[in-house]
Structure formats: structure tokens, C-alpha cells
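Recall the central idea of this unit: under ordinary conditions, the amino acid sequence of a chain determines the structure it adopts. In this exercise we apply that idea directly, starting from the sequence alone.
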Amino acid sequence: MIKISRLALVLLIFAFACSSERNTFTNRTFHNLTSHFNAYYLADVKIKNVENLVKSNYKEDYTQVLPVFIPIDSTSIQESADTLQSARELASKAVEWHRISKWVDDSYYLLGKIDYLQSHFDDAQNTFKFVNVNSKDKDLRHKTLISLLKLYVDLKEFENANFTIDYLSKESGINDENRYQLYRTLAYYYETRNDANGVIGALTKALDYVDDNKEESRINFILAQRYQKAGLDALAYDFYNNSQDGNPPYERSFFAQLYAQQVAELNASKDLRKVRRYYEDLYNDPKNKDLKDVVVYEMALFEEKQGDTLKTLQLLHQAAKEPGSNPRQKGYIYQKLAEINLDNYKDYRATKYYLDSALTFIKETDPVAEQINEQKETLDHYVFHLERITSNDSLISLARLSPEEQKAIAENFIKKEEERLLAEAAAKQEPESNSIFDNLLAFNDRGSGSTFYFDNSVAMQQGTIEFYRVWGNRPIQDNWRRSAASFQSTEPTIAAPTETDSTGVDEAANPLNQLPDLETLLAQIPSSEEDISKLNLELEESYFELGKLLYFELGEVESSIENLETLVREYPNSSRKPEAYYLLYLGQRDRGGNFQQYIGRLNNEFPDSQYTYSVNNPEAASGNLAYLASSKNYELAYDAYYKGDYKQAREIIVNTLEEYPLTRNTERILLLDIMITGKLESRQQYRQRLEAYIQNSKDENLIELARNMLRPMMSSEELASLNKSDSTALDSANLANPDLSNNEGLENLPESPYKVNESSTHIFVLVMSPDEMENAEGLLGDLEAFHTKNFQNARLRTGNMNMNSDHAIFIISPFSNAEKAKAYYQLFLTDFKSNEITEEIKNDSFVISIENFQQLNKTKNLEEYRTFFKSVYK
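Accordingly, the structure predicted from this sequence is:
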């Protein structure tokens, strides 16, 4: 009875302790223990398991700058749906069953993390905000705010992110773990905003608080990549070495060693030999069997730096054949081949096909794929028309020959194809070199001395071709199939071999598929006037489209003239002739040739054409329809450029220049097209177009604008030479390029208090006197109408303030970076109309970063800032 009584007493106490309504010491202790070590702990473990699965499933691409956070893969989350659901149930039990425990808020935080992982962002945001408001645990609140900050950055809600950062910056007592996560999240914030310096600063701070060796190694690797990208090779070298500490994954260690060679200082030829031996040792190391393509690719980049383009191309071709573990690497190899063929040889056809190959290895969602597709669009049109011209010309030429001549040419073509296939087989028979650099196109076939038939690819190729000559391209089949077929039909049909059929052959590898037959070749030759007429119509279109594309898109004036002259010579009755004359007029004018002949031809043959009107009236009156229409198109193109839709902007520009070739808008439209070049094409091409524009343009204001656009790309010596006689311009150059402060003869220039930060938030400022502002009652309405028309989705705000007794200002904000602010400024100067302000006030407007505005508000020295503004922004 005593034992029973004691057991009953324990059960009674336990029953009272289980109650979540009684807030006693016993109850609290029970619920704290149970919620912590049962529900909360198990839910936390399951969430960490899912996070680890996301990490393990992610393949790091060390050829690109690593992201601060490993992206969350939706596939991994879907695979873990049951695990996350179990974690959600456990965390919910910790909240519902143990309401008086101190782990309730922590469990709510876990629920927010689960919603975040499953992309339920609204629910996650609400949960994080709830925990921040209700929790009394400072560490938990900090952790929650950091998670909320990451969520805001994911959604690109930068205003909310800025508020959260500001709030956290004023918090005290943030523990080391939270500080580490905060600095990582700040680095992610700057990464999303393309602020490289911010990323470096935040990750450097994160290193002070990291306690995981593998994470420390990864951060060091990211810092090394970013320093290398910034051109700070010495710092990059140190961080690559640091990233090899802490037992990192082998692949990261491999790339750290590899990239350290890129930034190592090389002072003599013996250093070059040392690097080449280093790459060769990496290539021969068995541990790098799946990384050989990377080694050869890096060697190609090294040889490119030494100026050996031919060797670079050879190594890149070899890299494409080497085994590798990262398919994207092949894409980057082909992209590099495309870049060299475009920049060094202007081989647009090869560039197009290399980019096609690159896209087969790079995912559609990869930002690089989008960039390649934009670049490839013009090249696709170029290659289509070029190959159609080549093909149709050949077919029409063949059609004029006798049947005997046609047959002889076809047989000769087949013979050459046989020789080519044999030559390819012979190339594969070359013995493998002991050094990758002795034989840059090494293969893994056996030596040519092999006597066994199936080891000798030349013999196999020769046998295949000989079989084809005797028997034709017939399917391979066993004797029993032929016997069975003879009983069923006098014209047996043999089923195609299946995948499991022992006699099946790899059709893609069969050389017969590469060898054309005589009948097929002869059937392609047109035999009727109707067929030839169709080919000629295609030729006419392709000559014209190719000439236009070469002039407008590729800047190849000579080739454009050649194609257009062929068009007007071979197809004198073409409906495209007036526009072709006009394009020839533009091309000859650009090259300093005889463009007057095309003015005469247009007047004689097409006196009523719009192109004739354009060449006769280059300074057409502003009221004509062409000017108004081109002005409207210019607005549309500029709006697309402002929104970042550069492809759409270029399409509008090309169509406008074709439809309204010469108006008073032409030069500013061309300058906008050059600005788009700066976004889509190489820096070198951007500079070349600016320099050509400055030489050919007649509008002094646009020339000055182009010069200011060119200035940031000029070296210190070029700027000093350009501005030698102009002290104001010299000061501007010093401000635009801080490196000039070290040049001889510039030491005495005053240092500007203003700093260049193009990624910073900017505002637009109109300056007037207080009386002028008081009388400008309708200015706000005019500005709002201007914003509604041109910047409907930009959420611009307008305000005003008195700077001092002499100056009042209107402020339009915010612009997320300098580029958008400048776009607004330029459109304001050209298109804003208001009777409330004078042209002088309009022209004295400027844009300024938030940091520089704070400085300006202190000094009130408007002229000092305008000097800076003219040098950096105009």
C-alpha cells in the first residue's frame, strides 16, 4: 500500500506539472526540459539536416566568383518535404503544448525558417517580425533580425533591408555567432547590389568571428577571387594560400593552388618555365583526372597573358576534349574560343558556332547563358544570311552546268570527303605525347603501329569507305535475319536495331553518316527556272539584310558596302534599292569615300523616296514628321535603356535609323546606341565607338558628353596629356581618376571633399533662389507629369528645402545608382518642359550621391560640387 501511495503521489505531481496553465516552478522546469530536448531539439536537427542536404547537393563552380550564400535549390527542398513537415509539427508542438516554456519563441523562429526554406516568404516574414517584437531573448531577436534581413535581400526590398541594417547597427551586445551571420548577410546585401568593395569589407569582418574552419576557408577563397578581380594580385595570392588551411574540399584546394599561380609575380623567363612545369605536373597528377580540362584551360589563359594567341587557341581546343567534372567548364572554354575569334579575327561565323557549343553546357538559368543569347542573336542572323548566300550561289552556278559536269563535280566532292575522313582517322592514330605541351591536341588512341584491325582507326575508316563504294549505305544484319526476311517478302524490310540488340551500331559514330551519296547531291541542284528564281529571291534578301546588319550591328563598313554593291549590281530591279543606296551613302561617308554618287543615283532613280529627301536635307526642319517620329522613338529607346532592357532599346534604335535615317535626332540616337554598346559589348569596342563619334559628330554638346563618357576609360597619362592646358579640366580629371594624384605636376591640385561611388543612392537637384521657388507654384505638377510619362514605375518622390538664404532646392529621389540618376538627368535636359523655371535653372541642375549631398549641405559650396559633377557625371 505504501508503494502504491508513493506511485500515486508521483503521478499526481507529474499530472500537475504537465499542465501548461499553471505557471509554477515545477511546471516551468518540466516544460522547459520537454520542449527543449524533445520538440525544439528534434525540429532543429531536422532543419539542419535539410540545410546540409542543400549544401551537399550544390556543386561549387570555382571558375566563377563563389556566391556568399549557397543558393537554396528547390529540388532539394522538395525532396525534404517530409522532413520539413515533421520539423514543422515538432516546432508547433513546442508552441502549443509547452506555452509556458522559454523555448516558445525559439520554436516560432524555427517555424519561420521552415517557411523561408519552402519559399513561403510572407509567412516567414510575419513570423520573424513576431519573434522580434515578442521575444525577451536579445540573442534570439538579433538572430531573427539577421534572418529577416536576408529575406529582404532575397526579395530585393532594399529599403526594408536598409532600415534593418540601420536598426542592427545601433544594437549592443550582439554575440559572436550573430556577428558572423550579420557580416555574411551584409556581404550578401552588397553582392546583390553589385558593390564589390562592400562584399570585401563585410567578409573581412566576418573572418574575425567565424569558428568553422571549412567556412573560413571558403570565405578566404571568395576574398581571393574578389581581390584578383579587382587587380590586387598580392592580396589575392595571400588569401588563396589562406583558403588552403582548415582541411577544405580537395577541389577548392586544387583551384586555390591553380589560381595562386595566376596572381604570382613573374619576373623572369625561368619563372615562366616554372609555371608551365607546374601546370604540367597538375595535369599528370592522377588525383586531377576529372579536372584536366580546368588545368589546360588555365594554361591557355596563362599563354594568352604572354601574348601567344595561336598557342592559346590550341590549348583551348585541347581543353574542350579533356575529361572534366563540371559541365559548365566546357561552356566557359567555348565562350573563350568565341571571344578570341571575335576580338582577334572578327570571325563572326566561328564565334556564333562556339557560342552555340557553349550553350549546350551552360544552363538556361545561368546569367552567362542570357548574356550569350543576347550576343548570339545578331550572329545568328549574320551566319544564316552568309551561309544562304554561299549555298544559293553554288547551287545556281551548278544549275548552269551540263549533267555530266554536275556529276563530275559531285563525284569530286565525295572523293574529297573520303580524304577528309581518312585524314581525321589518321590524326587520331598519332601517338600520345608524354607532355601535354609537346602535343597540344593529344588523343588517347593506340599508336599507329598497331596491326590489329579494330585498333587501327585508319584501316577501319578505309574499310568502311570501301564497303560503301561496293555495297552502298546498307544496314548491318546477321545471316539469319536475311534468311528469315527472304521468306516474308521479295523486298524485305529490316527492323532497326534496338538498344539491346547485339548487332546495333552507334549511328552518330558511323562515318557513313558523314559521307554524302551521289544521288542526294545531284537532287539538291535546281532543275527548273522556278527553283532558280526562288534562290535568287533569297539571295536578294540576304545580300540586303547582311549589308544592313554589317553596318548597323557589327560596324563592318567595308563588308557592308561590298554586299550592298553586289545587291544593286546583280538585282537592279530590287525594291530594296533605294534603302541600299542610302546605306551605301552612309557607308561611303563614314569611310571618306565617294558618297555623292549615291545622292545622284537617289535623285535620278527615286526622286520621291524618303531616303532621297534625307540625303538632300540633312538639316531638316524640326517640324517635319520624320523628326517628330524619331523623337518619339528616341524617348521609347531611352526609357527601355533606363529600365535596363538594352536589347529592346537597340531594336528601337535600329528600326528608327532605318525608317528615319537623317533627322536632327540622328546624332543623339547614335550616342544612345553607343551607351548600349557599353552595356552589351566589350570595353574596347565601347571606347572605339566613342572615339569615332567624337571625330565625326558636329553637335558640340553631344561631343562634350561623349568625351566625358570616354574620360573614365582613359589612362592617367592620356588624361594628363588631354588636359595639360586646362586647369579646370585637369582638376576634373584628377577627381574622375584618383590615380592622377600621384602623377608628376599634379601634386598641388586641391583635393576634392567629394567621392565617386556610382553604386550609391543618388538624388537629382534643381537649384533656385527662394523667391523663384515661391513663384514656381506649378513646377511640382509639371514634374509629376514628367515622371508619370517617363518614369511611371520608378516611385520617384519630390521635395524641397532651403539650403541657405540665397539658395532653395527641389529634390527628386531616389535613384538606386549613378547610372539611373544620369539617365534621368539627360532626359530632363532634353524633354522636360515647364514655364515655371528658366533654361538657366534647368541647365544648372545636377545629380549627387547621398554621401556627397551630406557634405554639400555642410559646406553650402555649390560651385565646388558643380566642378566635381562636370568632371565625373557629364
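The chain has a mean pLDDT of 78.
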